[in-house]
Each structure stands twice: as C-alpha cells, then as structure tokens.
Design a protein that fits this description.
alpha/beta, six-stranded mixed sheet, 43% helix, 14% strand, binds pyridoxal-5'-phosphate
Length: 460
C-alpha cells in the first residue's frame, strides 16, 4: 500500500515517508492509493481495542513495517489511559450513545492519533539512527497530546507554539508544566493563525535543523493520526452491534480529521448510515454541506476552542476522494485559487453530499443549553465540544433513523469556565488537578521576527 498527494504531484510514497514528511511536496495531503478492506468476520472475533487496531493499522503500514513489528508496537502504543480498554461507551438511551474518547493522559481524543504517531516516529528514528524536531501550533488539545506522546522519546524534541487567546488554563498548563528537557513550550505573541504561519515558514526554511534531522508535523494532515482514529470507529461499531447495522456518528468538527477517519472506516467496510458534521459558529463546513459554499471567514472565539478554525485542512481529502472521484488535477485547481476564491463544486456532484452527510452549526448559547439539557435529563455532564455534536443530534433527530453515536472528544473538567457558566460541575481527574498546581515554564517569543527559529536552533 503506497500513498499519493491529493494534488497529484507527489506519489509512490511509503507509509514511513508519509509519516515523516507530513504534508506532500505539492501542498496537498497524502491519501492511500486505494482503500484497504477490513475482514469484518475476523474483526468480529476481537474483544478489545488493541485487537481491533491490529486488524486496521497494518493495512496502512505494510510498505514499511512487517506485521509482527507493528503488532509489537501496538501492544505498547496507547498508555496512561484511565479506562482498562481505553474507551467508555455511555448509553444515553436506546438510540443514542456517547463514545468517550477522553480517558487518555491529556483528557482529549487527540491522544489516540498522537500516541500512534509518536510510536512510529520513534521506531523510524531508532532504525535510521536519526533525531527529530516536532514543530507545531495548537489551539488547545493538539499541543498537550503531542508533548505527552513524545516526551518519553529522547530522539524527539518538541517545540509547541501556544497562541495568545482562547484556550483554557488547564490546556496551557498541560504544556507549560512538563518538566522534561526535550519539551519546549513557547508562548507566542499573536493568534493561532500567526502561529500556523510561523510553523509553515519553519517547514519551508528549516534553518534550525541539523544535518540528517527530521522536522515532524503533528497536526492532523499527518496520515498516521487518521489511522489511529479509524480504529475507534470500528471498535464502537463492534461493541454496539457487532458491525451488523449501520450507525450514525455525530462528530464535533474543526480540521475535519475525525470526520475523515469516520469516512475512511466506511470505505474500509464499516457499516455507516450518516455522518453528522457538527461545528460551532466557525461554520465553513456547515456552509459547504448546506449551500455548496466553502469560503474562508474570520475566526470567532467560542467556548469550544479546539474547533475554532477558518479552514478545515482535512476537507481536501474528502473533496478529492468523495466528490472529485480522485481527480487530482481538479483538486489542485480548486486549491490553487483558495482561499482567495471560495470553493463551489458542480451542483450535480455536490448533491451527493446528502447520501452520507448532515451538518449543523451550534452557537455558544445553544451549546450551553445542550450541556444543561443532558445534565437535567440524563444526569450527564459533557464538555462544550461534545455538546456541539449532541446539539446537532437533538436538532437533526428526525433525519437520523438508525442508532447514533456522539463522539465525546474532551473531558468536561478541561473547560471549568464553560462548565460554571452553564451552572454545571464535574470532578476533576487527578491528572488535571495536578497540572493546575505545578509551576509553569515557557519561553515568551514574538511571531514577528526570527526569534522562534533562533530559539529552536539554540536548543536543538
Ligand atoms: C481537535 C478537537 C476537535 C476537532 O477535531 P478535528 O479532527 O480537527 O475535526 C474537537 N474536539 C476537541 C476536544 C478537540 O481537541
């Protein structure tokens, strides 16, 4: 199984090359050359998450790692989770379940993708006898999960840009209180977009790298993160009905990585009814699925900060595979003019959206109301990201015929201000309260000059 770019100019890549490269050379995103099929009958005999992962992950890695090697990696990949089988499924009623993906060390679902990424980064670096720099920007949960996943691997140094603004104190402290000499949190002047621009520049210029050193991307353009997430879609389908009936999934969405993992699982044989693309007031995806209008707006700050985006990078993979039938030339053409020109596709192609997708945008007020509704009715406290997806399900319920799974992407205790604004309370897991009391250490740097690159070079 090899990989190629959605823009057609970077192809025949192995899993390892895609893992270590991140973004394709032509600016596109890597995608597998074909969708591998999962043997559903074999999968039905699995009884835990790791077993499921062992049926999924090797389908993507065979160009670089043999199966026995991958199985050995998977036995150790996911660690420091609070639940024995990593995931909890909470049944709200007969038709709606909540897939709790926040029991990992950083209390957000990003642990699933980033722990898998770190495990394969480390394996590759060991084999090639090289080191790596991780450089990334975070709006809240990516940074903590990347730092935590990489911190035990001495071959990797992590430099994470923390923008000014909207993330919660706990999210920030998860990054600034890790006392490790391969972890470098940077409090950057500027917005998330400013930080992203610096990261992009860093990947282009690479002035701070040593010879023979990798620069690793940890945002969800990295295919390995999607692979880690595909696993839990199969897992929950197995747990709920042994993969016998299609389910609906409601996904709180930012960069579209999690939705794309759901779509990928269905291409690999998982029964699927509808995907509900649930967004906050940053509604570019909702505008696309409702009106065929994919156009960039200013970012709004909301109470679900990990979904505050102006464009959804993984949407390019869906456009390429689902709408454009893998026409790389067309995909490249649309993106070469974006975001200056918005993306509208042929109405006849766009109309196939409704086979698979529903979308909904929930503003902060209705997100708060939804959090309160689930508490009053079911005694269940959910975080604001999860509530965006739950709100979508409430409002689209007439269009959802089969059972629905709401993805819960963060522990509610990560967002104490939002919780208290909704007059709700939850106990804080020890791993989060411990962070609050630790001393913060981070470098304050400007995004307006080269100081961030100089800082990386000095500490490399
Ligand atoms: C990252 C994140 C999301 C959005 O996931 P995407 O894959 O970017 O769509 C949703 N909720 C939480 C809590 C997150 O951290």
């Amino acid at each position: 199984m090899l990989f190629h770019s959605t823009r057609g100019k970077d192809s025949n890549k192995t899993f390892e090359e895609v893992l270590m490269q991140g973004l394709a050379q032509d600016g596109g995103l890597f995608i597998p050359d074909y969708w591998p099929e999962v043997n559903i009958n074999d999968l039905r005999s699995c009884d835990n998450f790791i077993d499921v992962a062992k049926h999924i992950v090797p389908l993507f890695t065979d160009s670089s790692f043999d199966r026995a090697e991958v199985n050995k990696i998977l036995d150790k990949t996911w660690h420091d989770f609070e639940k024995k089988d990593y995931i909890n499924i909470f049944n709200i009623n007969e038709t709606v379940s909540i897939l709790e993906l926040f029991h990992g060390p950083t209390a957000a679902f990003k642990d699933f993708g980033l722990q898998l990424a770190a495990a394969f980064f480390n394996k590759t670096l060991q084999t090639q006898n090289k080191t790596a720099i991780v450089l990334g920007a975070t709006s809240g949960d990516t940074g903590p999960a990347a730092i935590d996943a990489c911190k035990e691997f001495d071959l990797i140094k992590s430099f994470i840009l923390i923008p000014e603004g909207n993330m919660s104190e706990i999210q920030r402290k998860q990054m600034t209180t890790v006392d490790k000499n391969n972890v470098y949190p940077i409090l950057a002047s500027g917005s998330f977009d400013d930080c992203q621009d610096i990261v992009k520049k860093g990947f282009n210029e690479r002035t701070f790298l040593k010879d023979d050193q990798y620069l690793l991307a940890i945002n969800s353009i990295n295919w390995v993160r999607i692979v880690g997430q595909i696993c839990y879609y199969f897992y929950v389908s197995l747990k709920i009905n042994k993969l016998s009936e299609p389910l609906n999934f409601s996904v709180p969405t930012g960069n579209f990585g999690n939705v794309f993992a759901c779509y990928a699982a269905s291409k690999m044989g998982m029964p699927l009814s509808k995907i509900v693309v649930a967004v906050n007031s940053n509604d570019i995806l909702d505008r696309f699925f409702r009106n065929n209008d994919y156009s960039k707006n200013e970012v709004n700050e909301t109470i679900s900060p990990s979904m505050d985006i102006s464009i959804a990078s993984n949407f390019e993979r869906l456009l390429y595979d689902f709408y454009l039938n893998r026409d790389a030339e067309m995909c490249s053409k649309l993106y070469s003019r974006f975001p200056e020109n918005s993306i509208h596709i042929d109405q006849s192609i766009w109309s196939k959206s409704s086979e698979l997708f529903l979308s909904y945008s929930s503003d902060d007020i209705s997100t708060y109301k939804c959090m309160q509704y689930y508490f009053n009715k079911y005694n269940y406290v959910m975080d604001p990201h999860t509530a965006v997806a739950a709100d979508a399900v409430r409002s689209l319920k007439d269009a959802l015929v089969s059972k629905t799974v709401i993805l819960s992407t963060a522990h509610p205790a990560k967002f104490p201000t939002a919780l208290s604004n909704a007059s709700l309370h939850t106990d804080m897991p020890n791993k989060l309260s411990a962070v609050l009391n630790k001393k913060e250490k981070a470098e304050k740097l400007s995004t307006n000059d080269n100081s961030i690159f100089e800082y990386i070079k000095t500490n490399n």
